[in-house]
Amino acid sequence: MISLISNPIIISVILLCVLCLCRVNVLLALIISSVVGGLLGHISLSNVMEIFIKGMGANAETALSYILLGAFAVSMTHTGLAPILSRKIANIIQSKKYVLIFILTGIAILSQNLIPVHIAFIPILVPPLLVIMNKLKLDRRAVACGLAFGLKAPYIVIPAGFGLIFQGLIAENMVQNGIEVAKNDIWKSTWIIGFGMLIGFLVAIFLSYRKSRDYQDLEVKQVEFNDDLKLTKNHYITLGAAIVTLVVQLWTNSLPLGALVGLSLIFGLKAIDHRKMDKLINEGVGLMGYVAFVMLVAAGFASVMTATGGIDSLVNTITPYMMSSKFVATFLMLFIGLFITMGIGTSFGTIPILAVLYVPICIKLGFSIPSTIIVIAAAAALGDAGSPASDTTLGPTSGLDADGQHNHILDTCVPTFLHYNIPIILITIISVMVLG
């Protein structure tokens, strides 16, 4: 027990959460937690920083994706497509706050599987709708939970877009560690996790945050609305570029390449004048640059944590307790996954770490293949919704805090952590008990 309490992973993640709750900037909190964890792992300060900086490269592709997707999202504004979409949403919802939540959740789902702009649409589409949310006295925590559900559940359940990548990672890592499973079989087990998240989503919007909440009408960068809501040639080019972006991403398994091809079509077909290219890219960096850099720093944190040996120590400390029953083993594996993902901030990056540790344990305890899939997927996903460094939480905050009235930790991270991690844990344990 002493080794568990003194584990650098445990201490670093707890410190990260405490610093964020004390409203220390996420970037600074990650760096401070990395240094503390590294020192506790008996790594010199200079080596900690060297490992940290080298480790940032692990998320370079993700960061580049966000920058290019940010530019792609900005292009939707420059062509007038985003303002039209915001206006259409405003016309539809009128005084129906739940309709607004479901529309934004639906768009978030599409951003993962059909038009892979990921979180880049949020700071474009949401800020113009804040005034409407204020009039409806809509609790933005409900919207944050809706957006988080749309950003997270689809890649767990739907084998397309980001879901194809996530489920492919699970299949590949299970095969590498001794269990033969096809990529197309993953969703047949992980859908139950999505069902658990759906329950959490419904609880959040219809129970936890159903009451009215007052906000001030503060200045927000507004999108200029035009009375003409008809789609033009430039709008169709932008939509076509979004479809091509998805196709290229699925074909090459490279999101940055897909975004690059989409931007090339928008400029090549003159939906946007090429003379605006520098401005558009600069706006894309401004839109998504902070999130991209947080992901880079999170990768550095993950590298330091790995170098400390804390992950192996954590598993070795807890493994003896796993051998008593599948129930205990499942709970402890989810516990480890929660702490690792809370710190790393990405369920995608957690899968290779967990699979090496969990597949042998599941084989030894006689877990069925579906149960093993569910445990690995759930353990990786746990903490993603709720981590201060996760795009699942950074995305909603980037739009809902456009007027400075939505706190990243208290209004996004805490609500999403409670409403999604708890049902994921419960539904996973129940599934393993039923499936064996």
Explain briefly what this protein structure is.
This protein has 436 residues and is mostly helical. The protein has 21 helices and no strands.
Beta-strand content estimate: under 5%
Distance between the termini: 29 Å
Radius of gyration: 22 Å
What's the total helix number?
21
Order of helices and strands: HHHHHHHHHHHHHHHHHHHHH
- What is the mean predicted local confidence, pLDDT? 81
- What is the count of β-strands? 0
Task: Decide which structural class fits the backbone.
Answer: mainly alpha
Overall geometry: globular
* Relative helix content: over 70%
Largest sheet: none
Which regions contain 5 or more consecutive residues with pLDDT less than 50? none
Q: How would you portray this structure in words?
A:
There is one protein chain. The protein is mainly α and 436 residues long. It contains 21 helices and no strands. The two termini are 29 Å apart. The mean pLDDT is 81.
Write the layout of secondary structure elements.
Elements: H1 2-5, H2 8-21, H3 26-40, H4 45-55, H5 60-78, H6 81-93, H7 97-113, H8 122-125, H9 130-136, H10 140-157, H11 162-176, H12 187-208, H13 233-252, H14 255-268, H15 277-307, H16 310-322, H17 326-344, H18 347-365, H19 369-381, H20 391-400, H21 408-435
Helix pairs in contact: 2-3, 2-17, 3-4, 3-15, 4-15, 5-14, 5-15, 6-7, 7-10, 10-11, 10-12, 10-20, 10-21, 11-18, 12-19, 12-21, 13-14, 16-17, 17-18, 17-19, 17-21, 18-19, 19-21, 20-21
Keywords:
single chain; 436 residues; mainly alpha; 21 helices; 0% strand; globular
